[in-house]
Amino acid sequence: MSREQRAKIDAMLRQPRPQGARSVEASRAGFRALMAQMIVPTGICTTATTLGGRPALLVEPVDGPRAGTILYFHGGAYVFGSPETALSVTGNLVDRTGFRALSLDYRLAPEHPFPAAIDDALSAYRALLDSGEGPAAIAFAGDSAGGGLTVTTCLAARDAGLPLPAAIVAFSPGLDATRTGESMDAKAGIDPFFTRESLGHTGAMYLAGEDPHQHLLSPAVLADLTGFPPVLLQAGTNEVLLDDSTRLAARARAAGVDVILDITADVPHVFQSFTGVLDEADQALDRAALFLTQHIGIPDTVSTPSG
């Protein structure tokens, strides 16, 4: 671990920002500018496509993918972000695993509030299944709001009677619209990204008046995770959203789900984006890639020895 690397990133994230409420377009432009600074690996190629009626970005190794698909959901508080802003993470997962990734451009709030993002993600998953891709060859992955979508889309798929994917990987997921985790206050000021107020501002756009006490909005405190596939949750100790992951892990464990809670010290929200400049980011992505290769493509049957 490098204290110097972590301190440099923390200082960058704490640079003064425009005061007062920003327009949605200004927030989207600022997020694009921030994520454009992230390092994208050279061993990938990208192709614009569609999935389930929505635009998507196909990310593949330049020498061709192995069998299996990562269905990726980008971050951005359900208000900003795109497959392009998440490319440092998706590209590195593809580069490390050899799987292709389909990164979904789901509809954003406030123009399209809850449950539009979940509806789009579920439609994308249906389209993959309808194309002949087996659920054992598909994993959901995502960061921040997209990390939340990995869980809520799985809940929606189960509610719809669909087979569940092989695995879930969630980077710093947002999993509690009630904002009742202890880390919301314990990490106030330590988190360089978020405050309770900033999360409340974007959260109100996504909720659009809906009660946050619903399993598709606050799975960390309300969801029954029975029957879920193996889950990897990665987060940093400097996040106000830290307890979204710790509480979901506890619910998963109580439901008999295989779950790995992977917490890294002194790193910010979605620290995996800083691959190439933060050692912990590369190490976390290595662990996520190992998890994916261990689970994608494994048939949902147990062979018995002959004789």
Explain what you see.
This protein is globular. It has a single domain (about 30-295), classed as Alpha/Beta hydrolase fold, catalytic domain (Rossmann fold), CATH 3.40.50.1820. Helix 3 links the parallel strand 3 (about 70-75) and strand 4. It is an alpha/beta fold. The chain contains ten helices and eight strands. The termini are far apart.
Brief summary of the model shown:
This protein is α/β, with parallel strands linked by helices and 307 residues long.
Blueprint of the fold:
Blueprint: H1 3-13, H2 24-35, E1 44-51, E2 54-61, E3 69-73, H3 87-97, E4 100-104, H4 116-130, E5 138-143, H5 145-159, E6 167-171, H6 183-186, H7 196-207, H8 219-222, E7 231-236, H9 242-254, E8 259-264, H10 279-295
Parallel strand pairs: 3-4, 3-5, 5-6, 6-7, 7-8
Antiparallel strand pairs: 1-2, 2-4
Helix pairs in contact: 3-10, 4-5
Features of the shown structure:
307 residues; alpha/beta
* H/E series: HHEEEHEHEHEHHHEHEH
pLDDT below 50 for ≥5 consecutive residues: which ranges?
A: 300-307
The helix count comes to: 10
CATH-defined superfamily: Alpha/Beta hydrolase fold, catalytic domain
Helix/strand/pairing category: alpha/beta
Beta-strand percentage range: 15-25%
Radius of gyration: 18 Å
| Proportion of helical residues | 25-40%
Q: Strand order within the widest sheet?
A: 1-2-4-3-5-6-7-8
